[in-house]
Amino acid sequence: MPSFADLGLSQPLLEALHHLGYDSPTPIQEQAIPELLQGHDVIGQAQTGTGKTAAFGLPLLDYIDTDLDEVQALVLTPTRELCIQVTQALRAYGQRRGIEVVAVFGGAPIRNQVAQLKQGAQVVVGTVGRVKDLMNRHELVLSDARYVVLDEADEMLDLGFFEDVEWILSRAPSGRQTALFSATMPPEIKLLAEKRMFDPITIKVRAAQLTIDTVDQSYIEVSDREKPDALARVLKAENPEQAIIFARTKIGVDRLARRLDDLGLRVRALHGDMSQGSRDGVMIAFKGGRERLLVATDVAARGLDISGVTHVVNYDIPNSPDVYVHRIGRTGRVGRSGRAITLITPKQRGDLEAIEKHAKTTIHPWSQEPAAKPPVPVNGDRETRRPRHTKPRKATTDGECVKLIVSGGRAQGIEPADVIEAIVDNSHLEGEDIRNVRVLERFSFVEVPAARAGEVIDKVTGSAVRGTKLRLEVAKR
Ligand code: AMP
Prior knowledge:
The chain is an alpha/beta fold. Helices cover 35% and strands 19% of the residues.
């Protein structure tokens, strides 16, 4: 396996990577970096979590002439969240070369962004609309931009930005180098690549597998009323570097954040009812390490890269084994170990067992041990395991549930949180009404209370998730 040095990156970048704890390149980095350093155009078919940002970002940063104040590279992103994420990554990688990276995105005052551009930006990371706007105002000039990246091109297409992307590319220097990253390759993207790229090399990597093998998993059984105090006890004992605490509903997030605050713990809340500006603020503070504890819903935390997080706490047990794996599989990534602690009420033992069974894992009782202790091997320590029940309880609580089949699955980039979000946004159901979400390759399953199934089918059918129109029907046995 080659090292980052073997790929031909410069010393300041190698130092930054070492400082960030990146030991070796991921497959997309191994394949894309040498091609980009040689000046080739590259199409990378890769999803978030594969290390794609560094794959295009490191050659981009090596290309920048630090003596030149002009904009030499442009990264286009479909959303402001991704724009912020990419900017932070490039700043971290490029810190030792003193490269000025400026983020420009909609929904924030354009004046401040213009001022930042005027102070000298060597790399601009921007959302499509705002970049076009700044170019129209002649505040962003691309005459020296010889390196252009389209990140998550399929999202840009889904969001209807493609005409603007074409407009921007047609105004960038024709001798530029172009990199295009996309999880999927619809015909429109292939066409754009043919038109706007020069003899591109295509690199495909499989989606990063979520793994929970490196995560030490435990649970605490308490009554509903005792949950906030139990959580405070856990947080004090574990003393996490950074933790994300998942609650099921937006109201639940707010309530819990207030309660923890009353118990003397400084936390920030993140959910979909907050304004975009405050969500950005919380995300930036958390990602920058200035906030230690975050209470969030699954949906709000979806865009957040939480691989640096040491602890995940399921304050509310996840709706399904898939959501569980998704929540905790994002901590302890790339060689690090993480800890996951799930709070359950006595009634939820069956749910926990279902998770253990379907996620093929062992969740042992939490004990108050110092956080510095190395994680217990997932399959070891059988004595500490909770006695198994002979009869698993039913996973549902009150009332009968009906299983629905949803058109759309992993192949369309759909995640469990997307299914939950589509239902919560389009019907009167709350997150806690939705259970056992399972996302398969081309379709998904979800359980909802039988009495509400008709409403869910009517209201959610036709809504779009990641460019896929959903169709719901009752699953046949
Ligand atoms: P991305 O797919 O670009 O969103 O990256 C996913 C996560 O992996 C980010 O948190 C990166 O900081 C991290 N990462 C990327 N490349 C490496 C690497 N070679 N070694 C360790 N972590 C990495």
